[in-house]
Amino acid sequence: MSLSSQLSSDTTNRRRRPGEHMQDSSFDHDLQASYHHEEIHERLQGSQQLHSKQSCSPSSQNSLCPSSKCIPAHACVRRHSCEDSWEEIQSKRTIRAENEVEANKLVNNYRFGFRKWKSHVTERPFEERSEVVKELYSELNTIKPHADQYITCGNVFYVLLFGWWVSLVYFVVGALMFVTVIGIPYGKLCWKLCCYFLWPFGNTIHEIGNTLRRCCEEAPDCECSVTVEDNSPVLLPSPAEVPAPEAPERPLRTPYWHRLSTYVWLLLGYPPLVILHSLVCFISWILVFTIPVSKMNAHTLSIILLLPPEDVLISTSSHRNHKGYETRALLCCYRAANWYYYKYTVDGINVFAVNLLPLVIVALVIGYVDKENQFASSDVKFAMAISSIIPLSYYIGMGIASISAQSNFAVGAVVNATFGSITELTFYITALLRGHRATNPCLQEVVKAALTGTLLGCILFIPGICMIIGGLKHREQKFNSRSAGVSSALLFISVGGVFAPTLFSKAYGNLVCDACTNTNATSNSSGSFVCHNCHYDLKNGTLFHDHIEPLVYTVSVLLPAAYIIGLIFTLKTHSHIYNIHVGEAQVTGHHGTVVHWSRWRSLLILIIATVLMSACADLATEHIQPILNQPNISQYFIGVTVLAMVPEIPEIVNGIQFALQNNISLSLEVGSCIAVQVCMLQIPILVLFNAFCDVGFVLVFSDQHMWASIFSVILVNYIFMDGKSDYFQGTALVVVYLILLALYFFAPSPAGC
Question: Where is the Inner membrane component domain positioned along the sequence (predicted)?
């Protein structure tokens, strides 16, 4: 069955909501390479309200019209209520996938408890990519028949940042080659390249073939120009060319490696240009959007500068009309910068994650070698260590998605449960161990602040920023209210269980203050007292050991049990809530699919990334104390912001990409899934770890953490009630999040810190 026939037959059974498929044509043309494979067809998502409770009656044999949206009468099956049928049909969606592995990844995105991942885990056929993406991966050796305007902001930026000093270096090296006399041919080449690299756009570097070389040798003073077919940079002889007979008096060329000038060039001229192009290549690659400049310099260094100088010819856009010469285009650049290079990948890895990977090595070397802080201060080491968590989190997410997409459901669930929270748990456990060894109770409070900050960020900030960006592009987005309701219910259970010991301690604990002074002048008379550093006593007496501690263990058992029940409910017994369907005609199968990371490679990368994550977390906790000692910044604020949200940056990016794709359901699930895992998995694991290795972790939070979390859960559930989102609702969530951050910023540091 073809894809078109399948879609046509599917259309006869359902009516799509027109507004769901309205796309901005210009944006789709630019971004179709990112999500062309993941077109999602929503079924009957027009109205969220259905007031009619009666079952299907004979009078409704033709159609049912809730909220003016008509559906066939056979939607109500086996005397189910019309409301249930409407909700079931509303949640159905069909996913387009290029192969079986990508289909599994897309289905896993909708499964509760599975990590949401936007990027591809398989290699996409290059011929199916858009022209925008093909240009990103071009080798800069294709001559365009009609190039765009050369004077652009990116090209001018290239001249100011690279062009002038690259040309200056070539001029100096060329003068050096002229001084040696033997290297005069290379000096001429350097001066030609000096002009080329000052403004390379629209100019082409060719390798001269036998025909043109013979012409130049027989008539050295002739002005020969080169053109090739605009759409063919390959070395091909001209059809009109008639090979000239060999002239016996013509001297034979000396082989390249038999020339003295070659070795003079490799000893004097080539080394400084290696340094030059390597530096430009590195800087332009790190800037990402100037990757064409990096490609141009790498191509020049590895190919052009190693050719005989007489085989290199530079032509401008105005000298391409002569035919009959045998040449091959080596380098032709039209734009120095391209905004869409943010999607550029290397072996399936985003270029930003590739560029940040050396930061991990630098942070580990400086952190463990420079123990005395001679080369870098503790602040710099902490910043580098905490920034290194970003690429490691990306690699862990990519590994989880790759293994889950290539495995069955059971293996995927185990991998997601094992490695899904490894980033946060590594830092929390490392901080608790270091705080226990140093008898520093502040690190325990920092861990609690980080837990609360992750909860608040995933409940408020991630959904809010996704709603804003998605709403600005799509005006209004709709999502499955039933699936969002499951996550909301689990959030209520999570917050209630996590803060139950805190509420219990407030109700039955004794308030103890360190210092109290009588405001009355006479010490013997009764009066009001001013007390400082007041807290509920948990260490003395029997309240903690006989009541609070058993409650903590009970909650730590019930929360994972509720998480497992949620998995069974959403993935087995009530999977129709999500009801993801991948059409048979849309999946080409697993055979012939090129996977970026195999299962074993993904597992190896997961293990290595976890080990590196532990080392970076150890460095971060080792050098965090100077940051915590800052008098103007609350320790609560540091934990809630930096330590909580930096590891979640890859998830934020994924959520934004889903929102731009008009798939706000996954954007909301990104934050909800992490928040539920924090409460139902991470905190019970920390309690279990403390039971076997006493590090002083007590599941009793401050009032600020408790009320901020409870208020956030209530607010986000109110926002999710109507199943719609727009930029105003997202703004409300982000503003509330910023208000809570301001509250933490001005709050005093924890007692004893």
Answer: 153-203
